Amino acid sequence: MNNKLLGFILIVLIAALFTSYFIIKESIFPKGSLESSLNQIENYSKNEEWDKAAEISKEIKNKWKRYKPLIMLNYAEEDFSTFENLLSDIIGGTEAEDLPTVLTSVKSAKDLWENINRLVPEP
Q: Where are the alpha helices (DSSP H) in the chain?
């Protein structure tokens, strides 16, 4: 095989893997679904419906745990760990009925999730 053909095959393979990764990730976390859940947590917390907010936050955490090996493939450890910590802060905040903690953690989680979903995440 000549170098041009080998280079072309590698580029096609990388593009196929990259595309497949985002298709699979999109099927796990459809666009807007996580943001919608975070908005629900925020609204339930503001209305002092702490049980509902805690339930949704635990559902997000369980889904995150189930699929985190896939998500880890494309993202820096720091972003990944920060997002996990924010989910834990949200759960703890809803259980303690601590509105400031929940609101700041939800806002930070939304911002980080938006960055994670970019084709090239910012540092």
A: 3-28, 33-46, 50-72, 77-96, 99-116
Tell me: pLDDT of 74 over 70. no
- Cβ burial of 12 (10 Å; 0-12, 13-18, 19+) is exposed
Residue 29 structure tokens:
């976390």
Backbone angles phi and psi of 20, in degrees to 5: -60, -40
Q: What angle do CA 17, 69, 59 make, to 5 degrees?
A: 120
Distance CA 42, CA 102 (A): 7
| Average pLDDT over every residue of 5-9 | 89
Through-space distance between the first and last CA atoms of the chain, rounded to whole angstroms: 38
* Dihedral angle sign, alpha carbons of residues 102, 107, 112, 113: positive
Q: Is the pTM of this model over 0.85?
A: no
For residue 113, give the nearest of 121, 103, 123 by alpha carbon.
Answer: 121
Question: Given the structure tokens 């930070």, which residue do they identify?
Answer: 108
Closest CA to 53 of 14, 98, 85: 98
